[in-house]
């Protein structure tokens, strides 16, 4: 069932408060929306408003890490999924890079995203019921794992999915140890307060290339330099079972993994039911459902 919420909300107006994919340089925009919409109760989220992220040291137990690691290995090796559009492979090595809609492909992961210890984090920050905008598993194998260039997820979700406002959060759950050396995620604390317009128009079906290597919808080197000088750079490291909850507009990226130590994570995007998708703001058509869901049914239904 696709649930269309009819609540009147300013963010549904077609006026674009975060213009991007432009023909020429534009100044950075200070965020027009709150970072925290609800009541923060969990101590781990105390600095979320200021930093745009929170680290949860032991979200999963070792037994759960083993269970979910088995699940993502099964998905990566499932021959029935090999030609599925939801499976993204590396350009150079043909290895699996990501599997999308994992909360629909795995009952175990479907149960995980509905658990209060997970769902409650998103609801505290977003101040409402939420639904899954996107879920995936990211694989970064040893030696040849390809990183993700600096970007704001919201810029893409706004431009290509039609997400009106940055009222969404991502939860990245580590299933392997994250070291400073194996392509761990880098973030710019506080950068979620600044929106960076990007250059270039969005080609039709751009998602087919961008999910392997994104070139449109990324900031310029001058943008990254300015943000890094203003906010600095931190890195998410920790044992398997730890997690990072971060704002949709937080600037982040990762380098290639040339170590023998693989890195993989479950990645779930929660969007507020008061921030449901419109038509794309800077793309000819919406991306497929498995990338940007238009089923707005609140969890845990």
UniProtKB/TrEMBL annotation:
Coiled coil: none annotated. It catalyses: L-ectoine + 2-oxoglutarate + O2 = 5-hydroxyectoine + succinate + CO2. This is Ectoine hydroxylase. Belongs to the PhyH family. EctD subfamily. It is an enzyme of class 1 (oxidoreductase). Keywords: Dioxygenase, Iron, Metal-binding, Oxidoreductase. Signal peptide: none annotated. The keyword Protein biosynthesis does not apply. Residues 1-19 have a biased composition (Basic and acidic residues). Involved in the biosynthesis of 5-hydroxyectoine, called compatible solute, which helps organisms to survive extreme osmotic stress by acting as a highly soluble organic osmolyte. Catalyzes the 2-oxoglutarate-dependent selective hydroxylation of L-ectoine to yield (4S,5S)-5-hydroxyectoine. Its EC number is 1.14.11.55. It holds the Pfam family PhyH. InterPro entries: EctD (IPR012774), Phytyl_CoA_dOase-like (IPR008775). Its cofactor is Fe(2+). The keyword Nucleotide-binding does not apply. Residues 1-26 are annotated as: Disordered.
